[in-house]
Amino acid sequence: MTLNHSMSRNGEKSNYLDEGLSFSIPLSFSAHSVARRLSSKQSNSQKANQVYLNSLAVYAVDSYLRCLGIETEIKRSDSYNPISLMLMDVADLYIKGLGKLECRPVLPDSTVCQIPPEVWSDRIGYVAVRISQSLKQAEIIGFTQNVPITQMSNEIAEIPLTQLQSIEEFLEYLNPCGKLPVHSVQANLRQWLENLFEESWQDVNSLLSPNQLPLAFRGIDNFGEVVERAKVIHLDSQGNQQTVVLVVKLRSSEEDINITVEIFPKSTHYLPESMHVKVIDAEKIVQMQAVTDIAHQDIELSFKVKLNEQFSLEMSFRETTIVEYFSA
Amino acid sequence: MLTNKYKEGESVVFAINLCLLKEILCMHLFLNLISLRLSLHISTRKTSLEQNIHSCDERFAEDDQLQDSAILEGDDTLDQLLRKLVEKAKKYPVSSTERKNALNNLIREISNSGRLGHPHVSRFPSPNVYRDYYNEALQRTWEIICKKVENYNPKFPVMAWVNFTLNKQVLKVQREFPLPVELPDNDPPWDPSDFSNELCELRKLLLRKFIKDDPKELLRAKHIREHPNVTFQSLLWARDVEGKKWVDISKESGITIQTLSAFYKRNLEKLMPDFKKYFKEQLGEE
Q1: Which value does ipTM take for this structure?
Q2: Probe site for chain A from B73, B148, B195 (most A CB atoms < 10 A)
């Protein structure tokens, strides 16, 4: 009877809140129409099934995030492009201002979230979406920021569902104004050496004026080939716009990668005063740091990292902090 | 009871902006229907009790009163919780994590409450057809409740607002889809009914031809650094024509899966306009 049902629900409430589950998202006409349209444009039925499930997962996350006021752009996603779907196993959703979030479907009896190699790079994170047996309900069950390196020798990476982070952490992570600093796609420096760069990292020449470019940025220095990439960093603080250019320069030797990080002002002569820069290792220990004084034209930090080592660069000005993640 | 409520409602209506007039009238009618249903429910139960056990009339009348107040209390507890979540969501800015968590919990509590209505069942040919229309309406209701949480009028219980919205959405979805979209009723794997084998074969052939011919020599021009033999063309052929696994390509070439797949993906993105153009010319579709 309804009465008993409602009473027992009240009793269970604290458990629900602790578990931090998402609500269940109904999948009906709209969701299945998209899934059907995209899956009908594939080259075999196995692929069509994969695309069908991927589309449902993306649709569910899109609907969920729209409910919570997070802006998405499904049309900028590979998962909306039948040709990308034909040639890759992708289920991405473009989140405005952040990047691509991968939405992986998880079937009812599965205990792992599968992440194929095509989506190991260029993602802000991965959400696991449980799709019901009837394909009419979906639920977000957890998320992870990165694919563990130990999984990267497999045909497909598998993350046990029990190891995923909670919905609360996921929402915190997506919040550009939250307590945590803004996260971005981890830059893979090994691939930089193969001339493969993440979208957000651009040609240095396109961001800095020629007189800002030191001599070493001519492609080759005395020690061999140099790869360099740059990114614009906005350290805006209460209406006070502070834009700088972060340049990362690499030179590989046998086992290590030599890294030089430089920061230049974007359109002013000097860097903002009291701007902090930190190099942080995988154990979250600050390995190097620098602070700007009056009239600093640039900051330069040089260090070495080993293969597979992860580190981050933290740049802060007043209450704004931006973090860039790297793996070697 | 009905007349009283209606009069109260009228005074409210005059106090509020005119453009809300219609919605509020509907809402009142809807609420009145709920209370009518509740009183009908109670009186039916009383009648059956009276018929069955005459001797225990008094004791059962007392039980009935208790149960009725429990219904109200149950509603109150739920309503208090939902109101708290609505207030919490309203208090924080749209971009805050607090608001997102409050909205997530609000919708979860509503869907678990057992108090969601099932309006307009009789307008649909079968329960199965109704379920799909209902689900579509429910998904839209979640979005409306979350986006318009500021519009919630605390004069009414939260569930009344939710059910009122759901009620309207069911009708709206029915207007939008005069015929239901056929949904799969099997477990995956599932073959969509409009999946054409001929078109599928054609796509496969076209893709194979594009990779092999490489008319503009775009695919063979890209190779992995220090591996002139591992071109984008050879990877496309191995993956999409031969159906080779990443692990096997990695073993054969001595290149990590990570590097292979990133190279593959990056080049596919770069050359996507060419792929699109080719398929559009050949098939006339995007």
Answers
A1: 0.76
A2: B195
